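Recall the central idea of this unit: under ordinary conditions, the amino acid sequence of a chain determines the structure it adopts. In this exercise we apply that idea directly, starting from the sequence alone.
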Amino acid sequence: MTTKSIAVVTGASQGIGRATALRLARDFSGVVLVARNKESLEETAIEVRSLGAEAMIYAVDLREPQSAKTVIGEALKRFGRIDALLNIAGAVPQTDLFQMTDAQWDDGMALKLHGARRLTIQAWDALKASKGSVVLMSGNAALDPRPGSAAVASINAAINALAKAFAEQGIKDGVQVNSVAPGAVMTGRRRSFFESWAPAHNLSVEDAIQKFPEKAGITRFGTPEEIADLMSYLLSPAAKWITGASVRMDGGEIKTI
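Accordingly, the structure predicted from this sequence is:
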């Protein structure tokens, strides 16, 4: 554990965000946990503390512009520094391009893109002072946009671009910025998707889950813990020269050079 090092993790109540918060509890002395569900955040906080790190929770809606200022301000008041910001929060509906409403598009952008943008801007001065790091959560759909996942792909592509813009400024200011693009990771949210998708395709949920990897050209689903390990690596001294990158981890689903 690094002495007096603080990580802020959004989406920390479940899935990849929760797994990342627990992984970083081994690397940081304090973890600030951010999501909307206070009860789930408290459960994550108990596990973070059991791993030896301090935990601070903020149950806020990052779609609200004031939330970023509140989270960063209170984190600095408590700890006096921020060394890493992990922008993981954000779920975008996988709705067909021709059926998705303006409200659904706006909601997806408000949390995953603008929530991350505001937090990064609010934390920037603290990250400059600590020579810290930022990771923004994207996804491999950005590299393979299809009608059924148009919003996911478009917003993830925007996040990749936003991360590169922050990274350009970060080269001048001493802040490392990257994005991570996971593929098919088995989270509670993904299972919920299969529970609604499978009946419409005359499949049981378990059959749909079993068939998906072969259809996607991968051997299995990824785990939240694997993405969390990648996050930890990107924040480590060994990865300090990686900046402005979109790091894809998807079991080979997207095959590009």
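The chain has a mean pLDDT of 92.
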